[in-house]
Predict the 3D structure of the following.
Amino acid sequence: MRDLLIYLLDTEYAEHIRYLFSGESYKITIIENLEDVVEACQQELFDLAMVWPASVEKTVNFLTLMETSLFNYVPVIAVTPEDEALAPYYKLQLVELMKLPVEKVEFLNILDSVLLDVETESTVVEGMNWQGSLEEYNLIDLIQMVETGGRDAELTITENDISASVFFHQGQLISARLDSLQGLDALKKLIFWPRGHFQTKLTELGSSKDEIGTSNADILMVLMESLVKQEQLYQGLPEPFDEILRNPLETVEEMTPLQHRISECCQRPLTVWELLMTLTDSNEDIMLELKIMMQMELIGYRSEVEKLVRDHEEQSGIEKFFSSISSMFKKKDAAEEGYYFYDEMNGEYLTPKLEVNPLKLHRRELEKITKKLEELAE
Amino acid sequence: MKIVETAVWTHNQNLFEELSQRLPLDKTSVMNIDVHRFEIDDELVVLMYEFRNGVKYPPELLDHLEHHLAGLLIVTESKNALEIAETPEDVDKLAEKLVDKPTVMAVKLAPGKISAMNGAISEDGFYLSPRGRIAFWHPEAGDSTLKVWEMIWKSLQVS
């Protein structure tokens, strides 16, 4: 059931509004006085508010009130009369602008579409079963929220195809899972998720073992320390959802085992966040090594690395041409030490060989190819 | 964009045309070698370098390409299949360069012979080695040509 607030500025529209919502699963609260809006918002958690029929001045007043009362997380639609100019509304913080008259079917379609769009940005609270976005409530908030309820609950957090679970017994956090990671190790990874969808549900965990064995306060302290450290280490690295790639033109003789694992992961483009989630090493260690590897130019932004490789391939063709001309004149002294090497067999200086790791196909890519071939078979 | 490069060695040009006639390919030429581009979508492109029997390719070309090529497809027909073993110079040079790369040998058979095969064999071919398979095809034998392409790209899958 969606809760909608309608700020009604003209009672003549009330009957039409009731008709539009008749038979639909919306809970409508109609408020005619601006001063009653705050009280209504304090009593209900609205999914959406509508100013009806809107004027620019009244809409600005409504938005200002919502903002000053800290209810600006409620998305607002302005429903304007037929003769109202729309341009002045474009500057306002509205999720949609509707012009009257509007057919019931069209109206409900727009409403559904808006609610779907804002769903990921708003949190729905019904009893202890919440769902919403990590951008709104982070893990630390959520732990405290579940603790306040004092109930057994499972908190599930998902982003892309990755999912994590945190379990609470009577509000006390007792275990966490993120792929093969458990307990605090999993929580320390989770704390750094910049976005994701969460959902809590009440469940019975009566006989479950407390795998963490420490109070929520201590866990929160550890997580906050870890978050601060991770944020410090992250400075200078690409944004979490920027793609990075191994630079095949740079090689080093020795890499640490973690650097080697990072290098392997980055053979194909992936985001920094995917890298952090793929490896079971601590985020701090990965960030540190990634920073070193980026300074050594072993890893770079995908677009930059791909450009480097393209440029190098073009350049190497030209260099080959000049190298063969130079060999005719035996200009050995002109070679730069450290970049060219001397080929004793042919008596000429050559550029180093380009070492490019051949690309491999991943499951999803193969699925795309298979799908394409199936289309061709039809 | 990800580009997957594979080498295709053919006994003759007709064989490549027959095998690839159902693929929407764009052809270009790099250092006198035909390169066929198969665009899967905006993010994935397959490039096939067509090496032909009897053509002498400069060693520098192979030196350059060997690092890029992810796999090798050898296209032949049953009457010539043995010649590959008897006169191996061209194929051998290429195979030597790509010794650790997945290889599929695609042998053209009469359509009737393919339909008479056990379903599993006509579908997946035979196992030759951890990185090698043999497949059978004919342009008129159902989707056998597309199966060959699927097989070579499937062999490049890592996860």
Observations:
- Chain B has one domain: 2-154.
- The two ends of chain B are 19 Å apart (CA to CA).
- The mean pLDDT of chain B is 81.
- Helices of chain B lie at 13-20, 59-65, 78-86, 89-97, 111-115, 119-124, 144-154.
